[in-house]
Amino acid sequence: MKLQSVALVRASPLWAAATLAIGLTLFPAGALADIHKCVDADGLITFTDSPSRKFKSCTLLYRDPGPAAAAPKPAPGDGSTPASRARVEPSPARTNPGPDNFPRVERSEQRDRDLKARQIVERELAGEQRLLEDARRQISALGTQPTDKSEPKLRELRDTVSRHERNIAEIQRQLSMMK
Q1: Nearest to residue 36, comparing CAs of 15, 50, 16?
Q2: Is the pLDDT of residue 98 over 80?
Q3: pLDDT digits (tens, 9 = 90+) for 151-173
Q4: Fold for domain 107-177?
Q5: What is the pTM of this model?
């Protein structure tokens, strides 16, 4: 991947270093390349992955280790691999992608957590359904002919019914996405 050159007009060294640090943290690891800080004849600072002769000076700030940094693999049949060395299978918890220091959870423990989460959401759904039925019962208790006294209460109950119906729809959507 080719990085685009970024020119900074007579930027302070602190600002340039901060910009570089932020830029390095935003690039995914697979998209990194050698990064050079170059200054042209007018004093413009440019960060680039391909320095050229148009710059007065260039300093290498970061060298991408690339695929060459991986452990070299011996050629098959060259005798450098002992026959007694067996392939080590990773533990099930290590097959998850992520940084080495990222906490790992065993599959059985994750299943238990997922089950508990689903039970909590199902209880939430049952509670919303009860509240919806209560609000509907209260509306029917007010009668079909609203009076001046019951009109604000009826409006409030209809809003409550609508809110519980939306909550139920959202909870059901959440349940459908759970394992």
Answers
A1: 50
A2: no
A3: 888 889 999 999 999 999 999 99
A4: Methane Monooxygenase Hydroxylase; Chain G, domain 1 (1.20.58)
A5: 0.43
Cβ neighbours of residue 11 closer than 8 Å, sequence gap 6 or more? 19, 45
Q: What is residue 64's three-state secondary structure? A: coil
| Residue 61: its H or E element | strand 57-62
Under 8 Å between Cβ of 68 and 81: no
Nearest CA among 1, 13, 11 for reference residue 61: 13
Range(s) of the chain covered by CATH 1.20.58: 107-177
- Give the gyration radius of the chain's Cα atoms: 32
Amino acid at residue number 140: S
Reported as a single tens digit per residue, the pLDDT across 10-48 is 445 666 666 656 665 655 554 557 888 888 888 888 888
pLDDT at 121: 94
Residue 134 buriedness (CB in 10 A; 0-12 / 13-18 / 19+): middle
